[in-house]
Design a protein that fits this description.
The protein is 29% helix and 28% strand. It is of the alpha+beta class. The chain folds into four domains: 8-98, Rossmann fold (3-Layer(aba) Sandwich), CATH 3.40.50; 124-191, Dna Ligase, domain 1 (2-Layer Sandwich); 196-323, ATP-grasp fold, B domain (D-amino Acid Aminotransferase, Chain A, domain 1), CATH 3.30.470; 332-428, Alpha-Beta Complex (Glycinamide Ribonucleotide Synthetase, Chain A, domain 4). The strands form six sheets. Strands 12, 15, 18, 19, 22 and 23 form a six-stranded antiparallel β-sheet that branches. A five-stranded parallel β-sheet has the order 3-2-1-4-5, sandwiched between helices. A hairpin with an 8-residue loop joins strand 7 and strand 8. The chain is globular and about 60 Å long. The structure holds adenosine monophosphate and glycine. Adenosine monophosphate binds next to strand 7, strand 9 and strand 17.
Length: 432
């Protein structure tokens, strides 16, 4: 029996959502595709509705009016605002956790408690609500320490502090609510972990889970991992540091017990659990949970999935994950983000963008901060403008494909890191 086509609404406007939209477009199940609010690239695939991601009422109304069968939620903010709960009340299925599940990202102290209670490896930490408690903990701490705002802070709520004074100042700023608003009212003090970071994405449906391709992100703005933290300047998949016995160990010591712990806490989690890991000399440890796909990790994970991604997401949402097929291509993928120079601080907007007429067989151009002007000119409209993914038989080939394509794109403020994949590429060709 052939299943009915699905009318799908994709919520979000970044490169991640463009990759999700592209994967949905390729699905034989795809009916009408909509996005809110989308971007200029997504608009080539989906009809875009001008509704912001935090306008839960607007999104639910639109999903009802447009007779949407399935909503795929990209970013964390609508998840934590309960979009999926509200859609369920309206009888509309969605990929992404309810607000209860989204708390695993929206409250770092909630997740830390869950990890520690279940003996899942993570950095030792203390939650504080006042600076006197922070001062007591800092008296016995080894430096550096990591100070984290409890709530969502768009990737900016983490400060590594070299000494007690800096840590105490950071805690006070967060508690005073000046630096991170309501997100900083509870603060986590955490042991500093050393090692290499890697990302593991799981599709989770209650107690069932499937492991998506491994990846590694590059969070710093500058080459050699220097400069300010960003949403991510590039990524690649697979991440060989997280393959083989290391992956087996992460699945058994972290992924499986985490999924069990979440279910045992009474959360029927249906969506993606993105586990940020630090691979320390003491073994892999959890840095954080995100309850959505990573950006730009998605731009290297989805092109490697051979199976029908829309079916996978739909089965996950309906608690039928065990039935879904997940086949991964052996090819490597590498994504380089083309940003507007200045990002993540001030940067220009409105620069006209020139794209190549075709991408060739080995690449994808995912739009993030792009818009079309009234006369149809494609212009920059955000800090991360485009994500260019190259595919190759190995990582060097994927990197070459990505940079070949990236070099055919121009806009005045274009900036990208030239060293995406450097850790793994350096291991492949050790320095003399
Ligand atoms: P988070 O949002 O918790 O993943 O933190 C953002 C970034 O801060 C991570 O990707 C790490 O680079 C860094 N970080 C967070 N926690 C720690 C830690 N305990 N030790 C060292 N670095 C950390
Ligand atoms: N690239 C990291 C994130 O999406 O949180």
């Amino acid at each position: 029996m052939k299943a009915d086509p699905l009318n799908v609404l994709i919520v979000g406007s970044g490169g991640r959502e463009h990759a999700l939209a592209e994967a949905c477009r390729r699905s034989p199940r795809a009916g009408r595709l909509l996005a809110a609010p989308g971007n200029a690239g997504i608009a080539a695939i989906c009809r875009c509705l001008p509704i912001a991601v935090d306008d839960v009422d607007g999104l639910v109304d639109a999903a009802e009016q447009e007779q949407v069968d399935f909503v795929v939620v990209g970013p964390e903010v609508p998840l934590s605002l309960g979009l999926v709960d509200r859609l369920a009340d309206a009888g509309i299925a969605a990929f992404g956790p309810t607000a209860a599940g989204a708390r695993l990202e929206a409250s770092k102290s909630f997740t830390k408690d869950l990890l520690l209670k279940n003996s899942i490896p993570t950095a030792g930490a203390r939650t504080v609500k006042d600076s006197a408690a922070a001062a007591r903990w800092l008296d016995q701490a080894a430096f550096p320490v990591v100070v984290k705002a409890d709530g969502l802070a768009a990737g900016k709520g983490v400060v590594i502090c070299a000494d007690r004074d800096e840590a105490l100042r950071t805690v006070r700023d967060m508690l005073a609510g000046t630096a991170f608003g309501a997100s900083g009212k509870t603060v986590l003090l955490e042991e500093f972990l050393e090692g290499e970071e890697a990302s593991l994405h799981l599709l989770v449906s209650g107690r069932d889970f499937k492991v998506l391709p491994t990846s590694q992100d590059h969070k710093r703005a500058g080459e050699g991992d220097t400069g300010l933290n960003t949403g991510g300047m590039g990524a690649y998949s697979p991440a060989p540091v997280l393959e083989g016995p290391m992956l087996d160990s992460v699945i058994e010591t972290i992924a499986r017990p985490s999924v069990e712990a979440i279910a045992s806490a009474g959360i029927d989690f249906r969506g993606v659990l993105f586990i940020g890991l630090m691979l320390t000399t003491d073994g892999p440890k959890v840095l954080e949970f995100n309850t959505r796909f990573g950006d730009p990790e998605t731009q290297v994970i989805l092109p490697r999935i051979q199976s029908d991604v829309l079916e996978l997401l739909h089965h996950t949402a309906h608690g039928r994950l065990a039935r879904a097929e997940l086949k991964v291509r052996p090819e490597h993928a590498l994504c380089v983000v083309l940003a507007a120079d200045g990002y993540p601080e001030a940067y220009p907007k409105g620069d006209p963008i020139t794209l190549p007429a075709t991408t060739g067989g080995d690449g994808f151009i995912y739009h993030a901060g792009t818009a079309a002007t009234a006369d149809g000119t494609l212009v920059t409209a955000g800090g991360r403008v485009l994500g260019v993914t190259g595919i190759g038989a190995d990582l060097p080939a994927a990197a070459a494909a990505a940079y070949r394509l990236a070099d055919r794109i121009s806009f005045a403020s274009k900036y990208c890191r030239r060293d995406i994949g450097h850790r793994e590429l350096g291991r492949l060709t050790p320095k003399p």
